[in-house]
Write a structure and sequence with these properties.
222 residues, single chain, alpha/beta
Amino acid sequence: MENLKIRYRLIAILVLFSPILAINLSGMLLHSNGDTQCPLKAGLNHFLSDALIHINPPPPEAKVDAIYVLGGSQRSLKYKYETAADLFHKGICNRIWILSRPGKTEYSPSEGKNLTNDEWSLLKFRELGLPKEYVKPIKIKEGFFGTLSEAKGISSLVKKKRYKSILLISAPYHTHRVKISFDNFLKDQNILLFVESSEEKVFLRNLILEFIKLKVYQYFLI
């Protein structure tokens, strides 16, 4: 029991300080050479991308029972929603789940009010050609690890509905952590798990931060 407590403390400390480490490390790399294409930075980008990106799209002509779009910032969600809409229009699935987010966001001139976060999401999908009846916000019980909480909640819903397949959509650099999180709850369930990425691009510090989070998840789950 004592070893388990120490393990959890180490994980918590690493998660709390990982943003500081990522910013400092990326800053050191940027200032070490004025050339943004320096071999060190390019090599690190390549190494991190290989470690973080794990895409497993459905086979051609395949259909899935549900698409789930992982949560994120509004900027990130726009890219993910575009990917989800593209898959919808290709006929892969007509059931799209998104993370329900509490609170309000920006003012909408077309609606004449400040939108809730879920209303904002449904409006973005409508602009992409998806009526709101095809998109369902899903409430997830929040936990310390956000992606793990989503994986637990969505996996439980998939099993409850007896679905046989699900397609996850996330930012490219987030896909490996998404995969191991959902695998943790869907293993031995005979459920096909597919992972697709958006077109979102990020800075080096985001890759470093995500790599640290991935290692925490791997230590915690594997």
